[in-house]
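Researcher: Please predict.
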Amino acid sequence: MNTLKTDLNYYSFKSIIGDIYYIWSKAGCDMVKTNLTDKHLVWINYIGLGEKAFNSYLDKIAKEFYRTEPVIIENRNNYIEDEIKNFLDKKSKEIKLTPDFSTGTDFQKKIWSELMKVPYGETVSYKGMAGKIGKPYAFRAAGTAIGKNPLLILVPCHRVIKSSGEIGNFSSGVKIKKFLLDLEN
């Protein structure tokens, strides 16, 4: 549990898939390292669709992660928005943001880190994801971890499908998952 008082910044914007809410911070507890230069390093805690999901995430992190409620500041970040918009507009095949996985369990962090390695335009099965972390029979647990991914699009959980080739479930709805898969093909 984080014992520090933390300021979290948030904002929302309209996109072709709906209202995207995001939370970012100037410091993170457990950042996944990328090869980006410090100039472009952006730590992001949450990307999701809709106010209801956003508020649910805030409640979760306040209760489960922080000893005291974090200070939530409405603060737009144009770099974050541009990265997401460029991806959704097919101007970029990657989103250059660094995820803050500090609110995940060790198992979730492993799954989310492996998800980030699934190439643009490709898919993997839930069983395949479990295998990637050395737990081939933990595909249901992998599916649960994927469903709790707090970073829509950045951690590409939409690229995970059933072993049968069926699209499978998606926390933001199957229609959005299909859109994202079609976007990448």
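Model: The chain has two domains: 7-99, 106-183.
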